[in-house]
User: Fold this.
Amino acid sequence: MNMLRVLLVDDEPFILQGLAVIIDWNKEGFEVVGKASNGLEALEFLRKEKVDLVIADIKMPEMTGLELLEKVRQEKLSDAYFVVLSGYSDFEYARRALQNECLDYMLKPVEQGELVNVLGRVRQIYETSSRKREDDSVMECEAFARNMIPICHGRYRPDNVEYVQKYVGGGKNFRYISVELDGGHRNIRQLTADEKRKLQKELYQKCILLFPGREYLCVLNSSIREEIYNVAIIYVGGLLCGSDEESEQEYIDQLQGKLKKSVGFPVEIIIGKRVDHVEEISESCRSVLLAHSLKGFDLGEKPNWELSGHLLDRQLADTLVRAVKLNDKEGISDSYSMLSQEMKKSGMDVHMVNMVVNHLMFEFLHLALEQDENIDRQEILRFINESTIGQINRNDDEGLAQLLLEYGDYLMELRSNQSGEILGRIEEDIRRNYKENLTLKDLGKKYFINSAYLGQTFKKQYGESFKDHLNRIRIEAAERLLLYSDKKIYEIAEEVGYKDMDYFINKFIALKGCTPAKFRRQVK
Assistant:
C-alpha cells in the first residue's frame, strides 16, 4: 500500500506531539514526514517537500492555519488535502476553510476514532482520484500517440498537428529519441517476436515513470520499421528544459543515464536530429533510421551486385558516378534519368533500391576521400543517405538529380581545398554570419570537414583558435558600432552576437584594453 505523507502543524508542542502518537499512522496507511509550529514554517516545508495531507491548527502566531490554506491554494504550492483543527466551534472558521477546498474541520481535543474516520475518507478519496488520474493519463497518452505517430511518419493531417500543439505549444525545438531493444545483443537476438513485444511494453512502463505528468511524451509503436522494438520519447526543448543547446545536451545525457539505470535488459538509445517545428519530427525520426543504416554500412567492401541480378543497373550507376566525379552536369542528368527509368521498370524493387543507394554511398564517399582523407566520412554518409533515401522513397526524381549535381560541385570544392580556397569560403561565411551561434561542429557539417581537422587547419592559417577568431571579428564589428552609432552598449553586444553582457565586456577589454564605454568616450 502506498503510504500517504502527512504534515502536522500546531503552535502548542504537546498537542503536536500528541497528534503524532495518538494513533498508529502506518497502520492507517499514513506517514508523518514533518512537523511545524506555525503557518510560515509549514509553508517553507511545502515549498521543498511533497505532502498528501496537512493537518493544521487554525489559531497560530506568524501565520494561521486558514491563512496557510489560502496561501497554498492561491499560489498552487501543493494539492495536498487539508484538515483544520480549532478549539472554537465558530461557523465562520468552517465556512472559510471549506471555501478553500478544506476536506474536514475538527474540534480540539481530537478523538482517536474521529481522526481515523477522517484518514479513511482521505485514503478513499485519494485512491479514487488516483484511479481516475491513471485512467485519464492512459487515455491522454493514447490520444497523443494516435496524433503523434502520423507526424513521426510524415503522413499527418492538419488536425494531428493541431492536437499535438496543445501539449507542446511552448516548445522551442524537438527531437525524436528512440529507446529500443538492442537488436545486436545476443540475449535480445534469441527472443521471439512475442517476447520482444512483451519487453517493449515493459520498456514503455519504465520510460513513462521518468515523465510524471507528461507521460504522453513517451510513444509506443511509433517505429517505421517492424524489426525495431522501441519507445519514442518526443523531446521538447523549453518544456522539458532550457531551449539552448548546452542545457539540452545536459538533459539528454541525464535522461540516458536514468534509462540505462532503470532498465534491466539491453537497450540502445539513438538521438534524432534537432528540428524547429512539430511538423518536422519526421525528419528527426528519419535520422534515427539513418543511424540504423549507417551501423550496418561497410566502408571497406563494395556492395555485391552479382548477388542482386541487376548488372545493367550497376553499369548505369557506374556511369553516373563517373559523371559526378568529372562534375559533368549534362552527363549527370542523362545517366541519372536512364538509371531512374530502369528502376521504375523494375517496379522500385526494395532490394534493388538498397543496392543502388549503397553503391552510390560507397563510390561517392571514396571519391571524397581521394581528395582529402581527413574529411568527416560519417557526415558525408549522413548527407548522402538521408537525401537519397528520402527522395527515392518520395519518388522525387528532381530532388535526387539536384543532389547529384550538388555533390559534383562539392567534389570540385574539395579539390579547391588543397589550395586553401574552402577555408577562405568559411572565413567569408563567418564574416557574414558572425552574429549567429557559429560553431566548428556546425561549419564542419556544412562543408563536410571533420571539425577537429578544421580547427587545426584554422589555427595554422590564422595563428589563433576558431573561437578567438570569431571573438575578434565580433569585437571589430562592435568597435564600428561604438564609433558610428548611438546604440547602447547592451544593444551593441546583442547585435554582434553576445547574449551575455559581462562576457562581451570582458572580451572587449581583453582585445582593446578598456571597456566599451571608455573606448567610445576616448575616441569621441
The CA atoms of residues 472 and 511 lie 8 Å apart. The chain is about 60% helix and 10% strand. The chain has a mean pLDDT of 81. The two ends are 76 Å apart (CA to CA).
